[in-house]
Design a protein that fits this description.
Length: 593
Amino acid sequence: MFYQQMSIKLFIISLIIIGNVIGDRLPQAPYPIPSQGLNSSQNKPIIVYSFDDTDSILVSSTLAGVSAKQRPMIFRYSGDQGRYDVEALVMYFNVSISTANNVNDLFSFVFSNEPNAFPTQYIFCSNSSDINQRNAAVSLSTAQSVPTIILTSQYLSIANKYNLINAGNITSNDTPVTIFHQQLDLHQGQSPWSRRIALLTLNINPIDYAIFANAFMFYADPVTDPLSPESKLMKIVFDTLEPMSAVLGWIIGNPPREYVFVTEASTRGSYVHCADSSINLSGLSGFSIDSFTQISLTSLVKVKQIENKVLSALQPEQQQEHAEQQQKKDSTSTTAATAAAAVHTVAVLWSDGDNIGSFDQSFFVKVWQSPARGIYPMGWTMAPVEAELNPAALKRFYDTATPNDEFVGGPSGFGYTYPDVQLDLKVFANMTATQLLKLNMVTLNSIQANPINTVAYPANFSNEFLKYDNVQGVFIYDYFSYNIMGGKVVSGVNGKPVIGARLWLCELESDYDCTTSCGPGCQSMPTVVKRLKELPKDPSSLDGYTLVSLNAWENTVEGVNKFFSELGPGFEFVLPSVFVSRVAAVLKNQKEK
């Protein structure tokens, strides 16, 4: 049971009618806004560059961050990364593009187009390839009270040309640790950096956003060395952040690094954005789009609206007759979860929706653009914060979706957090529900920190999300094993379901390869197909429903289509929202019996 792929014509029409785009920031969100306002670069020129040596990227990224404080102007191409985002800016905001041949072209562009956005001083970095020196230079720059870029010896002539003042020098003796304590002493114990955003990364890519947000930037690996100065600094920096702050970056390596990182943020009321490889966030976040519509949900809404309009025109006795007929219809439908059809219902959900920036671009190229997408229903986790940090790229996903594509709020809502240890869960859930409403998402994928000891455990914190009318269900994972719940379901607020994935699919050849690459419980396609065929085909039972988690890195659309086709007859494949509604109907029927 599936729909045919949607024509690309709808995408073209959407680009024609969009016109001027306006938007605003979610009120509680910590992300800064250009002084000229969101969308201030609409119909204006921007400049792109693609030089890739470390010195040039460092200097250019800091200029991009400084100039973005006025309006977005400078964007980097790194292979395909960056190009798709800028294409989206052209589509939706009509920016015009110039290309820089060298770093000096970028400075000339800013100076001639927005002289008020030009930096007034610089930090000298003696070795841009040294992670500690680079991060120290960024943090010293963002501690300044005036716009400050970073220069290396290769580009010191720029300081002379534009009369920039030297505000400090970073050498081999300097690290983010020394800069942090030095600046804290200088400011009488008060942090000079943003109290809402910090960056923890060893990657050069998000430097532009650190500059733009006046954020402290450092790296630590508390798993390798929990007693190192950097590991201790991580706790101190997180303690300086206000509730509902964002930490951008990632700790590279195998578990439990992810667990430690997200837990340290969550227990302090903050959340994480996996953005260590993201580029151009300073510019991309300077745009905004008011609302997003899922084509997979729109048709269902329109049918209901038409039905309600017809019903309202009926006489009272006719309305009663209509209600009785509808009740009979529902009692024989699979949506009402009866045994009318001997099928097993399956929904699939792509993982890693907590990633932003570079994930979107690589995913767009490698997976989303597959001509095979749209043949079968699929759920796609997407970071709700993309509406704040990269709305044009997100809009492009929405506009190229088919009726068989549905977006689900990525873990665990507005940012990656563990709801079961989140210090300010009520506020976080409110932000999440508000953003899901804007994005026309009705389901949420949540990842928890602690092992599930009872089936009821996930409902304790999922109810904070489910109490909002627009959140219809929660798909729950454990951070280490996505299918640890084994398909168990629990009824939350107002009968809304909290659903655990039963199976976790990977296209690698063996179960061993899948477990090694993805995590415990992840299995190969032959094993998952075999297990599904052994399950009951009964839509009136919770055992007749299976949520399959798809690893974003080890699966292809073509492979997932093959998985569907190998299941054969006796299976119905549905979108996440349909899956949730049917499971909710089963829970309701069980309660009434």
